[in-house]
Automatic annotation (TrEMBL):
It comes from the Bacteria. The keyword Membrane applies. This is Phospho-N-acetylmuramoyl-pentapeptide-transferase. It is found in: Membrane. The gene is mraY_1.
Length: 138
């Protein structure tokens, strides 16, 4: 979206032409996602701990995994938010490949959310079975 704005502003100041370079937009997009993650991370961890969305560990697993019990899960929401906002800000919205990749990314994010939801809320330590994860069903 900012690319379209810069294209209109370039007639007033030629410095906005830098927005048309893919390398510039890739670097700025990476930095945008990084700063969103760094800003959102502590807030999200605190919120997930308050909601008691902690990792459920199977009793038949290795002893070293017991220390993970209660670790906040569903951090993928933060990653997906950072990437999606960054892409929407810095990519050409008219590019169909951008929308294709965002659709796949969000689709896999939904699968990850359902998997974590089953683990945390339903206390199902296995989450989604692999067949459902690969097929995108249920």
């Amino acid at each position: 979206m900012l690319v379209w704005l810069a294209e209109h502003l370039v007639k007033y100041y030629s410095g906005f032409n830098v927005f048309s370079y893919l390398t510039f937009r890739a670097i700025v997009s990476l930095l945008t996602a990084l700063f969103i993650s760094l800003w959102m991370g502590p807030r999200m961890i605190a919120r997930l701990q308050k909601l008691a969305f902690g990792q459920v560990v199977r009793n038949d697993g290795p002893e070293s995994h017991f220390s993970k019990r209660g670790t906040p899960t569903m951090g993928g929401i933060m990653i997906l938010t950072a990437i999606t906002v960054s892409v929407l800000l810095w990519a050409y919205p008219s590019n169909p490949y951008v929308w294709c990749v965002l659709t796949v990314l969000i689709g896999y994010g939904i699968i990850g959310f359902v998997d974590d939801y089953r683990k945390v809320v339903r206390k199902d330590t296995k989450g989604l079975i692999a067949r459902w994860k690969y097929s995108g069903c249920r």
